[in-house]
Amino acid sequence: MEKYKTVGVCSPEIHFEVEDGIVKHVAFISGCPGNTLGIASLIKGLDVHEAIAKLKGIDCRGRGTSCPDQLAKALEAYISK
Question: Domains plus CATH for the chain?
Fold first, then answer.
């Protein structure tokens, strides 16, 4: 299980698992439960690159980031290891 410390969003941390390039599990710690559970459910089973492409750059209320964007950043950090 990977852990990513977020910046600029309500959820302070994202836990996720990628197996053979496929997103297997995502859990946001705190945050808006309906939104974060929805995001996690929608990207489960996606190729990690496809998930990044769908989520990267989504903005929440002019913050310059969002929980989906932070998840994209977490996945990018994971694949750049």
Answer: 2-79 (3.30.390)
Largest CA distance in the chain: 35
* Length of the chain (residues): 81
Report the C-alpha gap between 63 and 9 in whole angstroms.
8
0.85 surpassed by pTM: yes
> Distance between CA 7 and CA 29 in Å, rounded?
13
Of 42, 23, 65, residue with least CA distance to 2: 23
Mean pLDDT of 4-30: 97
Residue type, 39: I
End-to-end, the C-alpha distance of the chain in Å comes to 15
